[in-house]
């Protein structure tokens, strides 16, 4: 398997530092799954190891947005509850789900857009 120039950032979730940073991540990668989360959210904590595994095992990039730090960014994407997962393919938002999804469902979501 060939390593690409983004292999370092693909191996673990990227913590988003703001709207411009998220835009750059989406522009630089074919598939990006964005996790809008909060540190106080129980389901978010349960989802974290699943997302770390997906970052290592899939071609998708996992980006994490702390909704407490980035309230305006969360508002831009209509986040009303956490976790909210937003999937981008080729720079376009293609899916949005509120609530923790099982690992196999998330893997299928990501892989459905990588083919």
Automatic annotation (TrEMBL):
Pfam families: Thioredoxin. Keywords: Disulfide bond, Electron transport, Redox-active center, Transport. The active site is at 41 (nucleophile), 44 (nucleophile). It comes from the Archaea. The keyword Hydrolase does not apply. SUPFAM superfamilies: Thioredoxin-like. Disulfide bonds join 41-44. InterPro entries: Thioredoxin (IPR005746), Thioredoxin-like_sf (IPR036249), Thioredoxin_CS (IPR017937), Thioredoxin_domain (IPR013766). GO terms for molecular function: protein-disulfide reductase activity. The record marks 35, 42-43 as: Contributes to redox potential value. Residues 1-115 form the Thioredoxin domain. PROSITE patterns: THIOREDOXIN_1, THIOREDOXIN_2. One of its GO terms (cellular component) is cytoplasm. This is Thioredoxin. It comes from Salinadaptatus halalkaliphilus. The gene is trxA.
């Amino acid at each position: 398997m060939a390593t690409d120039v983004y292999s370092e950032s693909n191996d673990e979730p990227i913590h988003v530092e703001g709207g411009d940073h998220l835009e750059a991540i989406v522009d630089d990668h074919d598939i990006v799954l964005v996790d809008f989360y909060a540190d106080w959210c129980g389901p978010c904590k349960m989802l974290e190891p699943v997302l770390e595994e997906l970052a290592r095992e899939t071609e998708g990039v996992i980006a994490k947005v702390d909704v407490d730090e980035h309230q305006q960014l969360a508002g831009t994407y209509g986040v009303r509850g956490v976790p909210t997962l937003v999937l981008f393919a080729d720079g376009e938002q293609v899916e949005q789900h509120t609530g923790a999804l099982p690992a196999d469902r998330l893997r299928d979501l990501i892989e459905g857009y990588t083919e």
